[in-house]
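tool=predict chain=A
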Amino acid sequence: MTSRFLLYATPFLLLFVGLSLFEPYLYREFFSSTDIDRLKGKEFMVIAHKGAAKQAPENTLKAIQKALDLRVDMIEIDARHTKDEQIVVFHDATLKRIARDSLGHHLTDKDSVHDYTLEQIKKFDVGSWFADPFKTERIPTLKEVLDLVNEHNVEFNDDVIILVEIKHMNHPHYHDFAEKMVEVIRNEPNGEDWIFVQSYENEYLEDIHELDSLIQTKQLMIGEDSAPLIAFYVETKVHLGHAKVSNRMKALNPEWKTLSPRRVFALHAGGYEVYTYSDNSNELVTRDEMLKMLNAGVDGIITDNPEVLIELRNEIRALK
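tool=predict ok
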């Protein structure tokens, strides 16, 4: 009886596992909606990825300023350490992709950010790769970015939030990264209210809360090298179970290809806000793709081109 039951039950079990793993794909391809009328009354966060990264060089002061000019709700930036342990705003581990030296030469994949002091880093051009008018752009410090946003908030009575992603680096310079991050945040007026921290590395977030429980954190889910459909379950069972007990995580940023309305509902039921993002490396996320994300129930979208999302939000608000 048992062997016969297993024989008949195995196909259904495999079907259930397959549907569970591929639920996000099936939703996106066959059941997702681009109907804007269903979003009447919905509010959500417009989050500029690396500033307005399709209008100015990513993570530069120009990109941050353009995002502020658009009046986004939040700006996501990336933080790394220099050789003299200064926090700068830069995405990659190496300078190869976007940095050029004083002679206009590209750097190599051996030129790591943490191999240069802040003074040396400031000499690199990180704007020419984007467009010639930006050739004077330099890698900003975290403080320079925060000061710029704070000045905007004060001048326009705004409340733009900065979301700082700590980029993990297996290097001795990072042993006290959390302490330095907390110090920078505390030095900004009411910094705990408008400066949030996110990371794939849960230990960074735990360290920050140990030092200052007022600082809000967001757990990034599904790393760049993860297998998203499987890793989602590992992340939610392990990290979120821990976060639930400590009550330290306020929001989660899962990649769009790991989500479905049921999963968003489950995360909401756990008390988390859900901000999603898609791979912007090849092309911009389309308006229809944004509509699919919003109809899945997410609370915000992280995008390289926030202007499109702001226009979409204005359309949704006009439905009232």
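Residues 102 and 123 are 7 Å apart (CA to CA). The first strand starts at residue 45 and ends at 49.
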